[in-house]
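can u do me a favor
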């Protein structure tokens, strides 16, 4: 693989042409970058530590619910303003921008699914992006996702076009979704959606390309190929990553392009998939894979195992099996037990970096 170092990317959060260069490099060299959903400084550093140790780029993203959590569950998040999810996303962005450079890896700072009813969240983040752009010539976030996949394709594309025009002067990346990701995530429940609508058609991809590419080259498509959010019993999910290859061929022919994979694809619902499903999808131009559910579980396991194996040291502040007057402070300090969750999450992110061939790319 051509090393990312050839690209001369800065460390820390990337913007504009650097994001494009990174995704082009991934597509050309057959790797994808894991997108880690973060909800706290603790999950941010776990993901960054994994990227540093695997010498790889990383994508950090907040969902709307994750952003609101960043602000604190005690803050009201009204449907009209989404003040908590806006403030939480902005706070997360400032934190990540400040901390990422000391990990020495390139980072794409992204926000996850924004459905129609959440557009006030998107508006608030774009206001913050534009404010930052005026100051520094860069937006706050590298990239945002719009997900109007539950609406008609016409409304989906029109909404994306309108927002993309606002994002383009900042060279900000847009991820859009077409075709529904099944399952349930963050309050969006698509578990009853019938199977056929989980698969995107090549004509849809071409329609999106025609609408977005005149505005700016900085966009990717989360196309449904049977993906489902969450992890279910084996056999319930039928992924068809080869459909992405058909989309690429269709668009390449329409464009008369020399590039055999002209589209940047995103794989949603990556948790619980097999290494072969990942590598097949990556071979068809997937540059970003979302693995939220597996990371949530991984984060829990370290904390769960710590608590269960130290339970007799955690019931009282003083007194444990070593003596009635022995203090337990060293056991209940959050830096000790939260750290155990960071370690297990970090290990799962490292596994994803290896599975997606991103490990060792810098
Ligand atoms: Zn998703």
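np, heres the sequence
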């Amino acid at each position: 693989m051509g090393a990312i170092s050839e690209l001369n990317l800065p460390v820390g959060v990337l913007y504009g042409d650097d994001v494009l260069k990174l995704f082009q490099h991934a597509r050309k060299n057959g790797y994808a970058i894991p997108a880690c959903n973060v909800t706290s400084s603790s999950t941010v550093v776990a993901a960054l530590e994994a990227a540093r140790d695997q010498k790889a780029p990383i994508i950090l993203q907040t969902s709307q619910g994750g952003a609101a959590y960043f602000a604190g569950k005690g803050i009201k998040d009204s449907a009209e303003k989404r003040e908590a999810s806006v403030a939480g996303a902005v706070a997360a962005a400032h934190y990540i921008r400040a901390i990422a450079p000391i990990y020495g890896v390139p980072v794409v700072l992204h926000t996850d699914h924004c459905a129609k009813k959440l557009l006030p969240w998107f508006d608030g983040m774009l206001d913050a992006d534009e404010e930052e752009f005026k100051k520094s010539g860069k937006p706050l976030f590298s990239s945002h996702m719009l997900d109007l996949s539950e609406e008609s394709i016409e409304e989906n594309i029109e909404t994306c076009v309108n927002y993309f025009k606002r994002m383009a002067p900042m060279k900000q990346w847009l991820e859009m979704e077409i075709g529904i990701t099944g399952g349930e995530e963050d309050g969006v429940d698509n578990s009853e959606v019938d199977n056929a609508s989980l698969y995107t058609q090549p004509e849809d991809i071409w329609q999106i390309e025609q609408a977005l590419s005149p505005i700016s080259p900085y966009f990717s498509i989360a196309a449904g190929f049977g993906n489902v959010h969450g992890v279910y019993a084996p056999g319930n999910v039928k992924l068809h990553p080869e459909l992405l290859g058909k989309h690429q061929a269709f668009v390449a022919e329409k464009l008369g392009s020399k590039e055999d994979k002209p589209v940047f694809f995103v794989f949603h619902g990556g948790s619980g998939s097999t290494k072969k499903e990942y590598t097949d999808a990556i071979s068809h131009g997937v540059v970003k894979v979302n693995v939220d559910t597996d990371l949530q579980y991984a984060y829990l396991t370290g904390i769960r195992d710590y608590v269960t194996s130290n339970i007799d040291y955690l019931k009282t502040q003083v007194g444990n099996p070593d003596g009635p007057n022995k203090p337990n402070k060293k056991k209940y300090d959050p830096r000790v037990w939260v750290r155990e969750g960071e370690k297990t999450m970090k290990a799962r992110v490292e596994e994803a970096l290896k599975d997606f061939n991103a490990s060792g790319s810098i």
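Residues 334-355 form the longest helix (22 residues). hope that helps!!
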